[in-house]
Amino acid sequence: MKSITIKGSERESVGKKSTKALRDAGMVPCVIYGGDQPVHFAAEEKAFKNLVYTPNAHTVVIELNSGKKADVILQDIQFHPVSDKILHIDFYALKDDKEIMMEIPVKITGTSPGVLAGGVLRLNQRRLKVKALPKNLPDFVEANISGLEMGNKLYVTKIETNNFKLMHPDNTVVCQVRISRAAMKAAQEAAKAEKGGAKKKK
C-alpha cells in the first residue's frame, strides 16, 4: 500500500486554549494511539489534503520535529459541522506483526455480459473492511464482474483475497447488474409485438 509522509510538531500543552490557538493558526491537533503511550502532535491542515480528500487508502508516516517517526493509519477524523475544517485526527500506530482493520476502496475489473446487453452496473460497496498485517494491506480490492449477467449480484464471497480477510457477512453484495429502464421497455415492447404476432397467426 502507498504511504504518505506528514511532518508535524510534538505538543507539550494539550489544553483547550493551546488547541484553539493551534486551530486559529491553521494547524490540526492530532494523537497517535497504539504505542506505549499516546503521542500528541500538530500539523498544518493542508498537509492532510492527499490523505483525507481522496478515494484512495494510504498508510501514513508521521515525522515529528523531535526526530520521532511513526508508521500509522488514520483512525478517526472530526470536521467542523459548518465550515468542514478538520478539527482533530486520531491515528493508530502500525506494528509489523499485528493485524489491523482498514477500509479499502473497491476497484471494478473485467467486462460484464449483462452490462454489454444493456444492464446497469450498481456498486453497492465502494469500500470494504479488510483485516491484514500492515505489509499485506492492498491498495484496492478487485471486484471482477466478468461473470455477471443481467440481474446477477457479486457477493463478497466471490472476491479474491490474497493475504487479507474481508470482514463482512457472506451475503454482502459488492455490486450487481440491474436491468435498465430502456432494456425493460424494449423487453416489454418485444413481448407485446410477439403477442400481437401470435394473435395475427390465429
TrEMBL record:
Belongs to the bacterial ribosomal protein bL25 family. CTC subfamily. GO terms for molecular function: 5S rRNA binding; structural constituent of ribosome. CDD domains: Ribosomal_L25_TL5_CTC. Residues 6-91 form the Large ribosomal subunit protein bL25 L25 domain. One of its GO terms (biological process) is translation. One of its GO terms (cellular component) is cytosolic large ribosomal subunit. This is Large ribosomal subunit protein bL25. Part of the 50S ribosomal subunit; part of the 5S rRNA/L5/L18/L25 subcomplex. Contacts the 5S rRNA. Binds to the 5S rRNA independently of L5 and L18. The keyword Acetylation does not apply. InterPro entries: Rbsml_bL25/Gln-tRNA_synth_N, Ribosomal_bL25/Gln-tRNA_synth, Ribosomal_bL25_b-dom, Ribosomal_bL25_C, Ribosomal_bL25_long, Ribosomal_L25_dom, Ribosomal_uL5_bac-type. It comes from Flavobacterium piscinae. This is one of the proteins that binds to the 5S RNA in the ribosome where it forms part of the central protuberance. Gene3D superfamilies: Ribosomal protein L25, beta domain, Ribosomal Protein L25, Chain P. The keyword Transcription regulation does not apply.
